[in-house]
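Hey, I'm writing a tutorial for new members on how sequence and structure tokens pair up, and I'd like a real worked example in the thread rather than a made-up one. If someone can provide the structure for the chain below, I'll link this post from the tutorial.
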Amino acid sequence: MQLDRQKSIEYGFLEFVSQLHSKHNSSSFYIEHREVLRTMFFNQLLSRALDYAARDLKKKGLAYYTISSAGHESNVLLGQLLNVNDPCFLHYRSGALMAQRYRFDSQRDYTEDTLMSFMCARNEPVSGGRHKVWGSVKLNVLPQTSTIASHLPKAVGAAFALAKLKDQECLDGVSKDSIICCSFGDASANHSTALGAINTAKWTAYQNLPMPILFVCEDNGLGISVKTPHNWIRNNYANSQSMKYIYTDGNDPQAAYGQVKQAIDYCRAYKKPVFLHLKTTRLMGHAGSDIQAAYLSEQEILAQEKNDPLLAWAKALVENHVLSKEEIVEAHTNIVQDIDHKSKRCMQLEKIQNKENLTLPYNNKLKKIDCKRVSFVSDSGTNSSLNNNFNTKPRHMAMLLSMGLKELMQKDAGVMVFGEDVAKKGGVYHVTKGLYEHFGPARVFNTVLDEQSILGLAMGMSHMGFLPIPEIQYLAYYHNAQDQIRSEAASTAFFSNGQFHNPMVIRVASFAYQKGFGGHFHNDNSIAVLRDLPGVIVASPSRGDDAVKMLRTCYDLAKDCGKVVFFLEPIALYMTKDLYEDQDEAWSFQYPQANEIIAYGECSVHGQSKTVIISYANGYYMSLRAAQQLKQESNKEVSVMDLRWLHPLPLDSVLKHLQNLGAEKILIVDECRKNGGVADSLSRAILQKFKNIQLKVIEAEESYIPLGPAANTVLPTEEDILRELKSFDHDQ
């Protein structure tokens, strides 16, 4: 069998076209569709020719991406029939769709832009040469590199947000009358992320809530080498009470045009989810490195090539007098020549040369972003009136956080609070208590019990201009959905060269020390999965007044700087009122005045001693108690530093405080596990700065946290802190 399938397919197409003939008196195509059909077919030819160019350039070492759209060119129908104000989250085989959608942007050249993306040119308009992604601010195509349907939850979130826009617009022209298009492959339809997102869309629609999303499953029958069982997609999705199913064969342009239009019109008119099952094929393998012969027979490969949509469309258009075979050959020749000419020009373009350029989108020095957002105004109350009501009596952290959330929601009607049990119940720990009654179900609402959907909703809503504050009920539960942040929210600015952002503040009930409650699902002390996310900020207050001040700062970091912010709230300190003795209420605080904040990267120090404990959250609380006990026992003073910010670590502030104190002995108390906490990074920075210093570290053991009193055997304790403080003298 001939190994160069690309040449075989290309020559076979030209040979096929040369033998076509128009039919007498054939007029099955509507007159008004004829020019549109010509344009769509030329863009199909362009998409295919660019796929060939990508592989040819790759062989020469000039291009780096070869996952093609070959066989999926019928998605050009979506490029034609969707409005430009319908945001799209697209499958990586969407070349023809994008080529057709480019008609809305007369200032860009699709061929040149795509070639630049293949060659990672620095001035490529989507990612700035970082990756091959489909995207455009002007065309409302939100870029991602999703390969396993990880973009579906945020697409559902965007659709959910559309109904909340009222009369505002968020992106260019996007309003409540828009719909969301989300495309993916038949293999990806089996992924738990896809299943969860589709379930959330159906769950929402089942309750008669708007969910205008068009799921486009481009079914080519393969997931790399794994075949999709015959009729699996149809039988799995065709019968749903709350999601309409429409099937179409992309190789029948006349019928497919009408069926795709029906799907879009239904979704727009009824604001309900639609599952468009678009039958496609796959040509030339999954990517350039994929050898089809390893898992498909020669007969199967030839059958795929016989099912090439370019053959079917060419036949239909010639037979119905829309195009002549001569026009098709001429168009093909012109497209190939144009690509060759522009490829030579793109070869000379500069690539990203240094890490500063590469990391700029998420290391932007926290300056204000200029992306368009919904203009919201306060809906009730003022910050000052809130302070007058709540600043008279000291409160614990849970109560103060509840007041802080209320303040933000009064300040900005775009703030949305949602998660499991956050509405009428007010959250498991009552942090959202009263918000539902004050702001109503449009702004405070419960979600499905699915962390992927919660974070997807947050991403989609932030794309539509809202400022989401989702709650993850326990830190351990975040691990069920970590890829939603790692692959989607945290990477948005990177893969769009800072053109798109996913601002949000993710509240997480966190850490351990709950006196044995819950075991490892509710007592989780691992933040490693958060601290390796570029551009993401992780904040963790230890006291109630700090929590409010930091929450204000986190809101600003999201709203003004487009940041994804994790706000880790120590569960064990939610209701804590006392510090040193019962009923001393030394851990209860008044609500901060409206102008009080804690600046990003600012930590605090209690005391003036040269012996310093550095910790955070529960560790800070325990360190204060241990320092007090040491003073009572031996009259020795200890300074205690609260990090507050866990990623990026506030190293400038830490080192400055240590220098000002003239620190000589340092104890780091890290309540997270040895290989997942902050101690290693802190220690390295301190030892690089200070050469003659005593440094000790207390960390949690490499163990899950057991149920009951045994939990304290694997966590740092006050006794451990006191012991290590005393050992400084013995080590001299």
